[in-house]
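Chain A, query sequence.
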Amino acid sequence: MRLRPLLAPVALCLALVAAGCSSDDTAEKSADSPAATAAESPAESTAAASPSADASEPSEPDTDTQQVATDQVAFDVPASWVTVDAAEAFSGDDATEDPVVQDLAARLGVTPEQAVQTFAQMDLIVTSDGERDAGVLTNLNVVHVPGALPTESAARAELKQIGATITSIEAVETGAGDALRVAYTLEAGGGQVRSQALAVDVDGQLVTITVTAGTETTSDELTDLVLDSLTAA
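Chain A, predicted structure.
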């Protein structure tokens, strides 16, 4: 079974968040996993720290930005964010033994081998430099496949498969093409994350950009940043 285009980035976000969530039990189980390595590498000492007392407050995205790009699209992210090499993060003989990967594969109805193969083919993964938003390592990823925009009903069905609760869904126009913006919540690592997916039709390619944060405010602000700056590459 092939991973659906909207589910693949959702799954990878969950992997990064699960490795970086504030749950001590989750952190102990996944500390040596490929997903944990990817999430912790930008600022290992900072990421290892427990969330502060005011972790429930939304973090403010940087005022300074940098442009990141794939072969299909370009957009802005906070200047302090760093890029993670997906192929490296999900390589190695033990990648399929990672409990985070196995859990994701079970949710998606695919084998761990299929999940790892898809994760390693991500076009782009960008994370905060270790700063957490309500205990969550804020991150963004991009994947593309040939195809058209999903319908609203198809998007709902795909996200429902992994237990997501959709909070809003709307058609939007971007500088790269017509898009579908979907906001949803998802249980991960003993807590709840707020994610938004932008599925964009770029000259016959379906590009999905997924933002994951710990609060709705941060998720909205980061997705707005991407949406306002999005162009075809």
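The beta strands are 65-69, 73-78, 82-84, 124-133, 136-146, 165-174, 177-188, 191-202, 205-213, 231-232. Residues 18-33, 36-55 have pLDDT under 50 and may be disordered.
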